[in-house]
Amino acid sequence: MNTLVPLPIYTDLFYHFTLVICILVIFNCFTRDLALTSNRKFISGMAFLVFALVLLHMGLRPVNYRFGDMMVYNAEFVNLMRGNPPKGEVEFLFQNLMEILAKFKSPELFFFTCTALYITPLYYASKRIFLDYWGYAFLMLVFSFSFWSYGVNGIRNGIAGSIFILALSQKTIVKKALWFLIALLFHKSMLLPLMGYLAFTLVKNVKLYFLFWLFCIPLSLVLGSVLESFFLSVGFVDDQKLSIYLGDVNELNEGVELKVGFRWDFLLFSALPVISGAYFIFKQKIQDVIFQQLTALYLFANGFWILIIRANYSNRFAYLSWFLMGIILIFPLIKYKFFKNQNSVVACVILFYFLFGYLLNII
After folding, report:
1. Are 159 and 69 in contact (CB under 8 A)?
2. Residue 64, phi-psi category: left (phi > 0), alpha (psi -120 to 50), beta (remainder)
3. Distance of alpha carbon 12 from its chain centroid, rounded?
4. CA-CA distance, 274 to 329, in Å (whole number)?
5. What whole-number distance in Å separates Cα of residue 224 and Cα of residue 362?
6. What's the mean pLDDT when you consider all of the chain?
7. How far apart are CA 30 and CA 25, in angstroms?
8. CB 179 within 8 A of CB 120
9. Are 304 and 317 spatial neighbours (Cβ–Cβ below 8 Å)?
10. Rounded-to-integer distance, Cα 288 and Cα 281, Å
11. CA dist., res. 324 & res. 95, Å (int)
12. CB-based contacts of 286, cutoff 8 Å, min separation 6
């Protein structure tokens, strides 16, 4: 457990550290061409440094209410340590992970293991998909504004999302299927992006997914409450929480006022990969199957979220697409050459993406 960092600044320290890394990366982008070996080595070095330090900082955090649902996970883990049966049912692999680690009677080991399972798949997936340029993709994932919260708060969902990305990086159908199954057995919410993946294997016309996403906006505006009632019976999150997410906010938030309604701010943020994907697929004519698949998957999952955008805590549904946002935005810029000063374009994308999360969480 890290007791050197005062709790009131524990989370802020993560964001300030990544700010420094972001500044160094952007300066490097403006001064070095992407193809230079020195550039690739520098970005890889920064990414590995972030991997190691964030693993330690997040993994060794104290058990404290400041980290949201960490206290809930800890209570269940302590319950298992004492030899009591589980209080509730969770997905098979996560439940077994808790029961195995409970034998060591160390909550610190449990939370460090969860952090490793959250960050390590992103490290290996970035290397598999982007090869020498993996550092850019990994940093974009860490710079995502939801990265910290799903490492310390929505822990199961975060682990499942990372394993899902690792599944996407596999070369064979068998390996993909295995990792998809593992992701589902950590959190069944991954069924939604998996449905998007399977849909693309059947219908590869990416234009249809853009039309679906656009159609979801007026549909949600007109039939939002009806759709929310319908999805009360769909198990993309824990059954006991569905009525809270889509129903009475006070059941979960104890009377604290939340900003609900049609979230135009979230919608504009979600539109970033949509606009970027449309530009590179239709304007620049990218024929890359992986990029088209990632974009279609995002459109499918994000469209579902738009349908229930008014729901309390709708960001938990949005995460089922947002966890892919970083790699979608950076993918075409480090895989293909489009602009004369593409290194500067990459710098601007990284800066904008990082600042959104930094300002939202710190300011």
Report:
1. no
2. beta
3. 19
4. 9
5. 31
6. 89
7. 9
8. no
9. yes
10. 9
11. 26
12. 280, 292, 332, 336
For residue 239, what pLDDT is reported? 43
**Distance (Å) of CA 247 to CA 113, 257, 341:** 34, 14, 50
Give the pTM: 0.91
Overall residue count recorded for the chain in this entry: 363
Phi, psi of 302 (to 5 degrees): -70, -35
pLDDT over 90, % of the chain: 74
Q: How far apart are CA 29 and CA 24, in angstroms?
A: 9
Q: Which residue has the tokens 């539109």?
A: 271
Cα–Cα separations (whole angstroms), residue 213 to 183, 218, 273: 25, 10, 12
Q: What is the Cα gyration radius of the chain?
A: 20
Cβ atoms of 42 and 32 within 8 Å: the answer is yes
3-state secondary structure of 57: helix
Task: Give CA–CA dist 158/317, Å, rounded.
Answer: 12
Q: How far apart are CA 124 and CA 174, in angstroms?
A: 18
User: CB of 260 within 8 A of CB of 310?
Assistant: yes
Please write the tens of the pLDDT for every residue from 188-224: 999 999 999 999 999 999 999 999 999 999 988 887 6
Separation CA 80–CA 87 (nearest Å): 9
Cβ atoms of 185 and 91 within 8 Å: the answer is yes
Q: Which two tokens stand for residue 283?
A: 């304007």
Contacts of 172 (CB under 8 A, 6+ apart): none
User: End-to-end alpha-carbon separation of the chain, Å?
Assistant: 28
SS3 content of the chain, % helix, strand, coil (to 5): 75, 0, 25
Q: Rounded CA gap, 143 and 39, in Å?
A: 19
Q: How confident is the model at residue 288 (pLDDT cuts 50, 70, 90)?
A: very high
